[in-house]
C-alpha cells in the first residue's frame, strides 16, 4: 500500500452579475487579478462556491478486488459552502430565456427581414414576417402527411440503409458513396440516427450471410482439392506416396481431405463393405484362400 498527501487551496466558483468587461486587456493582467489565492481574496466576487482549502490522504492499494478498493481518499476541508443570491438567480433565468429565444428565432432566420430594418421603420415587413412564420409551420405540418413526402421519406430511408450497409462492407460504388454523402447533408440528425438504428441489424445479418458463404466456399474448395488429389491406390494400400506430379508425400497428405460422406459414396459405387474388410483383415487364412467366398 502506498499513501500520498494532496493539498487543495482556494478552490472557488463565482458568478459576478455586475462587472466591467476585461476584453480589452490583452495582457490578461485583470483576469489574473480576479483569481483567488490564499494571499489574494477578491472581495468583489459573488461566490457560488466559497473558497475551499483542505488536505487529503490518498491510499493506493496494490492488491485490490471486489472487497478492497484500488484508491482510498480521506478529505478534510475547512469549509464547504454554496450560496446563490437573488441577482445570480435572476441572471440564470435570463440566460436560459435568451437561449430559448435564440433557438426559436433560429428556426425563422431565413424569413426574418434584414438587420437594418426595424419594426418601427418597416412595420409592414415585420407583419409579413410574422404571417409567413405562422404559415410556414402550417405548411410544414401539412406537408408531412402528403403522399409525395411519405414516398420521398421511404425512398430516402431505403437508399440510406443500402448505401450505409454497403459502405460498412467496403463494397459501395462511387455513386452510392456520393448518394450517401448527399443524404447525410439533407436529412436531419434524428432521421440519421433512426435510419442507422435500422441499418445495424441488416448489417449484422449481411455479415453473417457473407461469413456463411465464405465458410461454404472454403469447404467446397477443400473438397475439390481432396477429390483432385485422391487416388484409388491410397484407399486400398493406405500408402502416403507422392502423387504423379512429383509432390512430396507430406504435401499430398495435407491436400487429401476426404469426408466420411464422400468415403461412403465411393464404397457404394465399388460395392465395398468396410466392415467385411475389417473382419477379413483380422482372420488369419491360409495362403491361396479367397475370402469372402
Automatic annotation (TrEMBL):
Keywords: Coiled coil, Transport
Residue span(s) of domain Chorein N-terminal: 5-287
Superkingdom of the source species: Eukaryota
GO biological process annotation, one example: protein targeting to vacuole
Pfam family, one: VPS13_N
Coiled coil: 166-225
Region (Disordered) residue spans: 233-257
Family affiliation: Belongs to the VPS13 family.
Protein name: Chorein N-terminal domain-containing protein
Species of the source: Rhizopus microsporus ATCC 52813
Amino acid at each position: 500500500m502506498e499513501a500520498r498527501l494532496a493539498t487543495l487551496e482556494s478552490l472557488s466558483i463565482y458568478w459576478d452579475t455586475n462587472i466591467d468587461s476585461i476584453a480589452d486587456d490583452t495582457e490578461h493582467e485583470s483576469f489574473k487579478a480576479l483569481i483567488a489565492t490564499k494571499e489574494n481574496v477578491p472581495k468583489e466576487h459573488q461566490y457560488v462556491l466559497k473558497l475551499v482549502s483542505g488536505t487529503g490522504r490518498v491510499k493506493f492499494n496494490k492488491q485490490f478486488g471486489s472487497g478492497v478498493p484500488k484508491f482510498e481518499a480521506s478529505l478534510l476541508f475547512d469549509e464547504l459552502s454554496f450560496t446563490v443570491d437573488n441577482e445570480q438567480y435572476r441572471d440564470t433565468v435570463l440566460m436560459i430565456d435568451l437561449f430559448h429565444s435564440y433557438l426559436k428565432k433560429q428556426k425563422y432566420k431565413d424569413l426574418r427581414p434584414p438587420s437594418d430594418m426595424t419594426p418601427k421603420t418597416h412595420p409592414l415587413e415585420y407583419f409579413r414576417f410574422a404571417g409567413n412564420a405562422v404559415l410556414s409551420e402550417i405548411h410544414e405540418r401539412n406537408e408531412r402527411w402528403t403522399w409525395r413526402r411519405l414516398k420521398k421519406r421511404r425512398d430516402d430511408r431505403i437508399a440510406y440503409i443500402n448505401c450505409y450497409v454497403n459502405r460498412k462492407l467496403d463494397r459501395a460504388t462511387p455513386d452510392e458513396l456520393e448518394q450517401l454523402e448527399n443524404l447525410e447533408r439533407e436529412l436531419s440528425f434524428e432521421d440519421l440516427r433512426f435510419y442507422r438504428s435500422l441499418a445495424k441489424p441488416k448489417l449484422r445479418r449481411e455479415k453473417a450471410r457473407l461469413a456463411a458463404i465464405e465458410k461454404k466456399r472454403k469447404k467446397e474448395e477443400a473438397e475439390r482439392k481432396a477429390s483432385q488429389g485422391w487416388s484409388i491406390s491410397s484407399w486400398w494400400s493406405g500408402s502416403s506416396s507422392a502423387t504423379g506430379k512429383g509432390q512430396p508425400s507430406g504435401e499430398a497428405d495435407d491436400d487429401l481431405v476426404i469426408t466420411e460422406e464422400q468415403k461412403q459414396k465411393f464404397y457404394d459405387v465399388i460395392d465395398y463393405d468396410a466392415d467385411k474388410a475389417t473382419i477379413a483383415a483380422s482372420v488369419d487364412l491360409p495362403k491361396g484362400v479367397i475370402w469372402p467366398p
